[in-house]
């Protein structure tokens, strides 16, 4: 039976470390403030935004939230971002995705100052990651690296397979694993022989968006399996992209859903906010 990688415990450790850092910065007169923007009222987004604000409170970061109506125009959103970009009291700007269809996400993301891009989605942040320069890193893949390191899973020289090539998870995950000197393969919906490739992995990161798609037949004995997916099954219970019951019998270590990758994303967002405040001092 695989050991559980407990994202709740590890994310709490990180938030507690950050809490101390934030308190020390406060003593030096440095206050940190995150601006959170939500357009419309997508139910999942409302939950995520609520959790982000709660985490800010826990760590001691101030947050200001902008809950804008669904009909908000792209121009209105851009003008709010411009205002926040030039407000020196704001250290980080987060625009919750997805945005309503009439707003172009790329245009909006590009407008956020790279110095305040705590989500790590700006093309400059992505470019910096690809060429090994310091910059903000997308929170979910950054959180996965922390999960691996804090669970004593060696990355250097290992065969890592990432399933999924999204801009938010798959691609930055591959870059980060490469930065840790792993051998990285990125698979996606058109990949041939997916099972064979996955079976080579010492570390398998699954971000495909299909409930319970990966069962034990995809996993090498003793591998570390990281499940980024989150879905509700037919009984309204949360599950991931990995069939936990099946895979936990062959994997060496595995993240549960919920309580694996999810809490890490928010912990890393808090980390990016602290970095933003230090960087702009
Ligand atoms: N929507 C789903 N995940 C994320 C995230 O990490 N950041 C933002 N801004 N929106 C999201």
Summarize the SSE layout with pairings.
Blueprint: E1 3-4, H1 7-27, E2 33-39, H2 43-59, E3 62-68, H3 74-85, E4 92-95, H4 105-111, H5 123-130, H6 139-150, E5 159-163, H7 170-179, E6 183-187, H8 194-199, E7 203-206, E8 224-227, E9 231-232, E10 238-239, H9 244-247, E11 253-254, H10 261-279
Parallel strand pairs: 1-11, 2-3, 2-4, 5-6, 5-7, 7-8, 8-11
Antiparallel strand pairs: 9-10
Helix pairs in contact: 1-10, 2-10, 6-7, 6-10
Notes on the protein architecture:
This protein has 281 residues and is an alpha/beta fold. The protein folds into two domains: 29-114, Leucine Dehydrogenase, chain A, domain 1 (Rossmann fold, 3-Layer(aba) Sandwich), CATH 3.40.50; 139-262, NAD(P)-binding Rossmann-like Domain (Rossmann fold, 3-Layer(aba) Sandwich). It is 41% helix and 16% strand. The chain is built from ten helices and eleven strands. A six-stranded parallel beta sheet has the order 1-11-8-7-5-6. The protein has a three-stranded parallel beta sheet with strand order 3-2-4, sandwiched between helices. Strands 9-10 form a two-stranded antiparallel sheet. Helix 2 (43-59) links the parallel strand 2 and strand 3. The model has no long low-confidence stretch (mean pLDDT 97). Guanine binds next to strand 4.
